[in-house]
Amino acid sequence: MINIFLIYGIFFISFYSLLFFETIFGESNTAEYQFLTKFGGKESNDGELSTPHSIDIDKKGNVYVTDTGNDRIQKYDLDGKFILQWGEEGSEDGQFDKLHDVYVDPSGQFIYTLELANHRVQKFTYDGKFILKWGFEDTGGRGVERTPHQLSIDSNGYVYLTDKNAHQILKFDENGKFIESYGSKGSAAGEFLEPHGIVFDSNNTIYVTDMKNSRVQVFDKNFNFIRQWGSFGNGSGQFSGTSPGIDYYEKQDIVFVVDKTSTNVQVFDKDGKFISKFGSKGKQDGQFNRPEDLAIDPEGKVFVADTGNSRIQVFEK
């Protein structure tokens, strides 16, 4: 009996010691990013937000947010101070309907927006003056209606859109001329099931959140498959099937992915090795409700579009 109790005693001591060290040094200690501040709030006054779906930051530190519920773009400084806004509900030039994405081109001169209801891209100056627009009628939609959800621009000025409905990536020139499409429906390398987020690094390497395949796929500038990472689940390095937003931070060569259902942000190195994650479900500071997108400022602070809570939250190490 003494030997049995001794064995059980050693087991429980070992188990709880392991649990203690995991808690202190393992999973729960991966939350390197801490809440810094927030701005927005669910109203329609200047600076307030209603279900913001997308965010981007230019090289000068101007923050652009799709205020989707109010059909407008809002511009802030890095402290969340309101600068200006443009847009209203409609289908005319400069108007929006189901505004879903905003992106600053690499030069910092132009702002691109994407709408789900109007099925178009619009191009503006950095202070909101309309330049041009284009739709997706002549892009070979495989018999389905095009539903681009997010866009990104490479260093040569080419515009890439993720088409969630057709399971493809569309490529245009900076004036909206369609060039070609990539991918098809499936789960093999280079195939997609509802691609959503897309971003480039300085070498024009392409990172795509392949949502329903619960993975990130990586391609070279000619769209040749390089690698992939992720699987379905809620663990570290896994995705819930709803990972709409992605961004790349050049100074550290790290990738950020926001997960709408798991309500967190995960951090990876450029090869897909998990580094850390932060966030949980809720309304308190540092918690999320259906987050959709994120952007990294020049100093590495992480701005998250906390869509369900109608606010932007900012995190830093």
Question: What would you say this structure looks like, in words?
Answer:
By secondary structure, the chain is mainly beta. Helices cover 8% and strands 40% of the residues. It has one helix and 24 strands. The chain has one helix spanning 2-25, and strands at residues 34-40, 55-57, 63-67, 72-76, 82-86, 99-104, 110-115, 120-125, 130-134, 148-153, 159-163, 168-172, 178-182, 195-200, 206-210, 215-219, 225-229, 245-249, 254-259, 264-269, 274-278, 293-296, 302-306, 311-316. A four-stranded antiparallel β-sheet has the order 1-24-23-22, with no helix packed on it. The protein has a four-stranded antiparallel β-sheet with strand order 2-3-4-5, with no helix packed on it. A four-stranded antiparallel β-sheet has the order 6-7-8-9, with no helix packed on it. The longest helix has 24 residues, at 2-25. The radius of gyration is 21 Å and the shape is globular. The termini are far apart.
